[in-house]
Every structure is written in structure tokens, then in C-alpha cells.
Design goal:
By secondary structure, the protein is of the alpha+beta class. It contains three helices and five strands; from the N terminus they run βββαααββ. Strands 4-3-2-1-5 form a five-stranded antiparallel beta sheet. It starts with a strand and ends in a 13-residue tail after the last strand.
Length: about 100
């Protein structure tokens, strides 16, 4: 599961990504819920920090959706966005700590 933050059409969002495209979390959560009848646990509006282990409250949902996507790639291809059409952003916008080495 690889996550990213991106800017597209005037907004910043979170997505799953691969080498040439991204799948916004809101679309992934919708496809997962429609196909499985399962709850994506608020994943559609989750921040990237909420999707990361060990303490992210949406991590379990993000992992379940990512696993489902890897098995059902053709089901989500219509909502993928090419990397050339988005601007990738730094993963954590405001990190709580910063470590520097000299």
C-alpha cells in the first residue's frame, strides 16, 4: 500500500498510487463499499496520517481497501488519474518533528 498527497483541480487529497497513476481514497472507498458491502471506516475523508500504522485510526480500513484494490484492479481503473495530471505533494504537510543530520 503506497499513499500520497496530491493537488488536483484546486484541492488537496489523499490517494493510493503506483508508478503511473493514482486512485483517490474517496473513489477507492466508494468502490470497496459498493463491491463488498463493507464499511470503509471513514476512509473517504481521512488524512494521510490517519491511514498510517501503528496509530492511524483509518489504517485497518486503508489496508483492507488496498488489498481489495490489488485483487480487483480492473474495477477501479475508470477512476485512476494519470500522474502527469496531478501535482504530488510532500507526504506529511506539517510534520510534528524534524530530524537533521550533518
Amino acid at each position: 500500500m503506497r499513499l500520497c498527497r496530491f493537488a488536483h483541480e484546486g484541492g488537496e487529497k489523499v490517494a493510493f498510487y503506483d508508478d503511473d497513476s493514482i486512485l483517490p481514497l474517496e473513489a477507492a472507498a466508494r468502490f470497496y463499499s459498493e463491491a463488498t458491502g463493507g464499511d470503509a471506516g471513514g476512509l473517504a475523508s481521512a488524512s494521510i496520517e490517519a491511514c498510517l500504522p501503528p496509530d492511524g485510526n483509518a489504517y485497518v480500513s486503508a489496508r483492507a481497501v488496498a488489498d481489495w484494490i490489488s485483487d480487483n484492479e480492473e474495477s477501479v481503473s475508470s477512476s485512476r488519474i494519470s500522474l502527469s495530471d496531478v501535482q504530488l505533494l510532500v507526504p506529511i504537510a506539517r510534520p510534528p518533528k524534524m530530524f537533521l543530520l550533518a
